[in-house]
Design the sequence.
DNA sequence: GTCTATAACCGGATAGAC
DNA sequence: GTCTATCCGGTTATAGAC
């Protein structure tokens, strides 16, 4: 059980860490400095956070919350699929921009299969689901027909695609991230085209192959719950 | 300039590190232990390797060499595209299997945009090119027609695809990595089908969109050399 | 110049008293 | 829940040997 005071202390530590990360970057921020700014002892900081990387995680969650909020504005107003998708992507890029400097570290951590930040493992199922849901919303609000067989897979695919864009952004040092924005726009086009194309009955065999692939990935991504 | 004795010392350090990594894993291996097993002082190890992660890099390079060798046997014998591609993928999976336990760390490091292991940045251009060349070979030796416009992009795409398979493998804890092998086979199928499909003149507009995307990525992947 | 060793530093993490 | 004291291991400074 955690007390009121505990919550406050924890919040102070997060704030201190986030401030320092933004000021100097992650590596240059010591746990000693975080503790000092939060007004607690170093040891106490470890009472609330198992390690330094867990503070990074706090950062990550905040970004996701901010994105959900920013994307909602787009989803509430746009009705065209292309506009909705691009709007959601752009709001993502906007939200993460301040952290470009060290989000490489986030990715780095996220790449470790054992990391709680890794989008592919079970621990982060909730966060992943939130992300996927967002793209389900993107599709729902759009006036477009989607073949029933691929429909359930599409949000997950789009979410994966959005991670690809973020990966590109990570390496993008162009002025104002123009390259990433250009890529988002072009690929958005492509995605919409492919979705429309997939309805074509001539492509049914290809769609079936693709579906089989998706299903075998799915098993690993969302293991079927073992019944009692 | 480095002397003969220097080379030998360096090799001893790599061997010591690689042995220890395999025995206990990366995190559990201390630089002190590596130095001791190599019969050098801890400080001396740092004369040869800027840091612990550079020893990991040695591991990585060895894996790549092994893969090139293993793949060659496939490329020399098979002529069918599907068989060639699947053969190369399987040889990759075979080579990396002993390191499954900690290759997550490799990926983790590779995900950092500044890391020399990151396949997308300039420092690793050479290693990337080697990988891409392998898939160029896969295509060359196969009896198949490829539309001229996408031909130059295909090896790079296939290399990227192979990294996707490795990423999946990383998270695969199934018996004998059956899931990854199943995925490789299925996606291999799919890739071959898509390549054939892309030749269809009806898909020209889609291909054009895709090409534009590929070109904007390319700029970042291989920046055009500035002329003098 | 190339190589090697010793000693120290620094910061993340932990133990244990209060 | 909070602190102090300590550990541990990656890294660096530096001095000297070949």
Sequence:
């Amino acid at each position: 059980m955690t007390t009121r005071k505990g919550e406050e202390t924890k919040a102070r530590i997060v704030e201190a860490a986030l401030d320092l990360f933004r000021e100097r970057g992650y590596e240059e921020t010591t746990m000693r400095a975080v503790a000092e700014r939060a007004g607690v002892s170093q040891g106490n900081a470890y009472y609330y956070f198992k390690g330094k990387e867990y503070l990074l995680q706090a950062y990550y969650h905040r970004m996701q919350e901010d994105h959900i909020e920013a994307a909602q504005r787009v989803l509430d107003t746009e009705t065209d699929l292309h506009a909705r998708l691009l709007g959601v992507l752009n709001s993502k890029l906007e939200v993460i921009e301040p952290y470009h400097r060290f989000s490489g570290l986030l990715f780095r951590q996220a790449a470790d299969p054992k990391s709680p930040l890794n989008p592919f493992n079970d621990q982060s199922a909730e966060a992943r689901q939130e992300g996927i849901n967002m793209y389900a919303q993107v599709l729902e609000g759009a006036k477009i027909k989607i073949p029933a067989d691929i429909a359930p897979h599409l949000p997950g695919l789009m979410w994966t695609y959005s991670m690809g864009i973020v990966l590109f952004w990570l390496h993008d040092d162009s002025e104002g991230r123009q390259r990433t924005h250009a890529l988002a726009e072009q690929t958005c086009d492509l995605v919409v085209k492919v979705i429309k194309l997939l309805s074509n009955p001539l492509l049914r065999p290809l769609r079936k192959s693709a579906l089989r692939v998706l299903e075998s990935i799915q098993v690993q991504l969302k293991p079927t719950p073992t019944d009692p």
